[in-house]
Each structure stands twice: as C-alpha cells, then as structure tokens.
Amino acid sequence: MTQIIVQGPQRTRELADEIAEKLTGQCQWRDSFALIENTQHADLSMLRQQYAVDINVLPAEFETDNCRLIVMDMDSTLITIECIDEIADFMDLKPQVAAITEAAMRGEIDFETSLKQRVALLKGLPVDMLDRVYNERLMLNPGAELMLKTVQQAGIKTALVSGGFTFFTDKLKKRLNLDFTQANVLEHEKGYLTGKVTGDICGAQAKADFLIKCCAELNIEKHQAVAIGDGANDLLMMAEAGMSVAYHAKPKVQQAADTALNHCGLDGVLGLLQRP
C-alpha cells in the first residue's frame, strides 16, 4: 500500500479528494495534512505542477512511528539565511561570496574548496560582527520551532549539522534544546577573523558521518533517522537516512530526496511523520 501525504497552505478537503480520485486512492483528512492510500504506482509530477501543494510518497521502508532522530542542515534549511553571505555583507563582499555559495550548493564547486575561498575573504573582520549577524539577521524558517517542539515532546532527538560555523550552531543548540551539533570553527586572533577555519572541514562526507555517529550514540538504526537539507553537500547525509526531506531545495537535491517540501514550512516534516 502506497502512502501519499498532501499538505500546504492551499490544501482543502475538496482538493485532497480530487487528488485522491485521480490517484484512485482513499483519502483520510487530518488537521494538518491529508493521507491518500492507493495500491498503484502513480506519477506525481503532473499533479505537483497542477496543484500548489506538496505531494509526497512516503518511503515504503520508513516507519513513521519508529522515527528516533531528525538531523537538519542549518543555512537555508533551519534558518532563512546563509550565514557566511551575511558575514561577508559587513565587508561589502556579499555578492562575491554569495555567488560562490550558490555554486557550491548546486554542486558546481567542491564544497571544501569553496569554503576556504569564502572564509579567506573574511580575513580582518572583527569577531563581534558575528553577533550582529546572529542578532540582526538570523531568523528561523517558518514552522521550525513548532516542528522541533513537537518531535522533542515525542522523544525524538534533534541534531544540527552545518557547513557553516560553530558560532551559530552553538547558539541554536542552546536556544532550541538540540541534542547534537557539528560545524566548522572560524579561526580568530586578537578579536579578528584570520580567514581560516581550524580542524577538519564539515563538508558532505562529514555530514553523513555525523548522522551515522548520532545513530550510534543513540543505539538506533540509520533507517530510524530523518535528514533534512537543501544543498548538494547534504546529499550524502540524506542518502544515509530512512527518509530524506529536500526543504525548498536546489533541483539536484529535490531529484535525489525521498520527499520535498516546497509549499510548507518546516512544520511540513510533521505531516511526513503523520503527526498532528
């Protein structure tokens, strides 16, 4: 039996029933999503183009009741901004850095190389400018707090991994009561950035390894984890999870992910987990 989740601001009973009819399935209406069950393989690409809602087939092997861990990317996934682009804005270098960021997220440039290029441009910036980025520009994506509070109340552990920086992941860990975090460490001397990162770079493989490590620490299987991301450097991590979610993601990521959220906020993850 195939399970299909329909959700988004434009979702109505009539629309869900219409989609179910086209899929020759049975529709169950819930407060925040509609569940359609059918026994036939369906091409949803045309329906997604026709209706302004998210329509996702749940992975057959993934048991929503057995989810024990959610691992999220940070920049443009948990939060609305790319932190490094906003840091660069204080040096009037945002267009240059943002162009490299975009190319890296599309998978056109090796992430580790792109990070070194971008961080090098930040040399000489006062460290206290990072506080300004966090306080003045960093915002959570819609539905993030609701999603996190709901899954945490259900006993699901939460983790944040980023190709960005520990300055921000550490603050978000405390603010959102996250269980695990990992990111890159910006080197600084005498109150100024040096243009380098210290330690191993948290790139695509490191993100995948982080998910595996979290599962091991929790003594759970990888298929009990959900991975959420938007960029090419999230793909290896997403491939390790029981269910991957492309959140307002680059086309390459949407094609590879099990599910995609393009109309919902992060609270759409609750619909995929079939939680009210």
Keyphrases for this structure?
Alpha-Beta Plaits; 7-stranded mixed sheet; 4-stranded antiparallel sheet; 12 helices; 276 residues; alpha/beta
Give the number of helices.
Answer: 12
Largest sheet composition: 7 strands, mixed
Radius of gyration: 19 Å
CATH 4th-level superfamily of the largest domain: HAD superfamily/HAD-like
Low-confidence stretches: none
Number of structurally distinct domains: 2
Give the structural class. alpha/beta
Classify the fold: give the CATH topology of the largest domain: Rossmann fold
Strand order of the largest sheet: 8-7-6-5-9-10-11
On the 0-100 scale, what is the average pLDDT? 95
Distance between the termini: 22 Å
SSE pattern:
EHEEHEEHHHHHEHEEHEHEHEH
Helix content: 25-40%
Write down the overall geometry. elongated
Range of strand content? 15-25%
CATH class value of the largest domain: Alpha Beta
Question: What would you say the CATH architecture of the largest domain is?
Answer: 3-Layer(aba) Sandwich
Number of strands: 11
Structure description:
The protein has helices at residues 13-22, 45-50, 83-89, 94-105, 111-120, 128-137, 144-153, 166-176, 204-218, 235-240, 251-256, 268-272; strands at residues 2-7, 26-29, 34-38, 54-57, 69-73, 157-165, 180-189, 192-198, 225-229, 243-247, 259-261. The chain is 39% helix and 23% strand. It has a seven-stranded mixed β-sheet with strand order 8-7-6-5-9-10-11, with helices on both faces. A hairpin with a 4-residue loop joins β2 and β3 (34-38). It has 276 residues and is α/β, with parallel strands linked by helices. The radius of gyration is 19 Å and the shape is elongated. The relative contact order is 0.17. α4 packs antiparallel against α5 (111-120). The mean pLDDT is 95. The longest helix is centred in the last third of the chain and has 15 residues, at 204-218. The protein folds into two domains: 1-57, Alpha-Beta Plaits (2-Layer Sandwich), CATH 3.30.70; 64-276, HAD superfamily/HAD-like (Rossmann fold, 3-Layer(aba) Sandwich), CATH 3.40.50. It has twelve helices and eleven strands.
